[in-house]
Amino acid sequence: MPGPQARKGRGTTWALQHRFSQDERQVFDDGWGGLDQRAQTETLPPQTRIIEEQVKSILSGNDSPDISFDLSINPYRGCEHGCIYCYARPTHSYLNLSPGLDFETRIIAKVNAAERLREALSSRGYEPLALNIGSATDAYQPAERKLRITRQVLEVLSEAQHPFSIITKSAGVERDIDVIAPMAARQMSAVYVSITTLDDSLARVLEPRAASPRRRLETIRRLAEAGIPVGVSVSPVIPFLNEPELERILEAAAAAGARRAFSIVLRLPWEVNPLFQQWLEQHFPQRAARIMARVRDMRGGKDNDAAFGARMTGQGVWADLLRQRFHKATAKLGLNTERFALDFSQFRPPARAQLGQCGGVQRSLF
């Protein structure tokens, strides 16, 4: 498949054109040494650029029947972790940027996220709903260390006593235990840590700038010790790649203190499909055809199936076997025996606390 060579620390260096591109570029030798200059430029490591953005709103509604939260906050667009399988990569197309290299090197930071959140929560018509942080791109990716946008969002949620969940594959979430733990003590926060593999060598190429597997297990332990309900996401499950580790990952997470777990099979929407297949050919050429054949077995013969009810789990015999393995392992380990019920009764609008409290409804996440 087309595409440049792999580079350490990047999921891909392929500046794949997005589906809305109107122009197609081809390399051409004009006789002035342009190809030589291009080759020299491509040997330089691609640098990350943070682009600050003032957003009009920060809460995104969800009406997908197979997702268990109502609202989401993503403080960043794009993600430097560089996970090759990330289903959010195609969203960079809407910015006229490549879902390939640009997704992990052109990071949009929503610098006024906390301000917009405060406005939304204090509006007269707002009622607290199940809210997740980091569902599309990681809220604790490297840019957060300096910008602290996620931290500011959590502080607004804490002030408003608004429940939330977080999903991340970064140890950076430990920095905010001082905010998350007091909320957890009131049944208003939960964290899910994504662990795709326990194999360091696989993790380095699959999700090159995320925390190491062992570091993520340590994060689970520290969150649990702080009294924060913590779960594990074993996602995505990729046949014949990380799939054989499913039970071992669940066992390691449970030993570290995880109380819940969920798992999603590999999804290949839009530009993720050619990016992932090119990555497979680069890193696992002997297994690439076998992996894709099994993916198609779970997707009705297609590379991807976006239908609700099937996109997260797949279908067919192999998908059924995966589900059986997951449920058997979680039952054995005592995972998913209780739900993380979050208390919405304590919410108070941050700018209008005099309005009083909302009803005592409890909802469950994941």
UniProtKB/TrEMBL annotation:
<feature type="domain" description="Radical SAM core">
    <location>
        <begin position="63"/>
        <end position="302"/>
    </location>
</feature>
<keyword id="KW-0408">Iron</keyword>
<dbReference type="InterPro" id="IPR058240">
    <property type="entry name" value="rSAM_sf"/>
</dbReference>
<dbReference type="InterPro" id="IPR007197">
    <property type="entry name" value="rSAM"/>
</dbReference>
<keyword id="KW-0411">Iron-sulfur</keyword>
<keyword id="KW-0479">Metal-binding</keyword>
<dbReference type="InterPro" id="IPR040086">
    <property type="entry name" value="MJ0683-like"/>
</dbReference>
<dbReference type="Pfam" id="PF04055">
    <property type="entry name" value="Radical_SAM"/>
</dbReference>
<dbReference type="InterPro" id="IPR006638">
    <property type="entry name" value="Elp3/MiaA/NifB-like_rSAM"/>
</dbReference>
<protein>
    <submittedName>
        <fullName>PA0069 family radical SAM protein</fullName>
    </submittedName>
</protein>
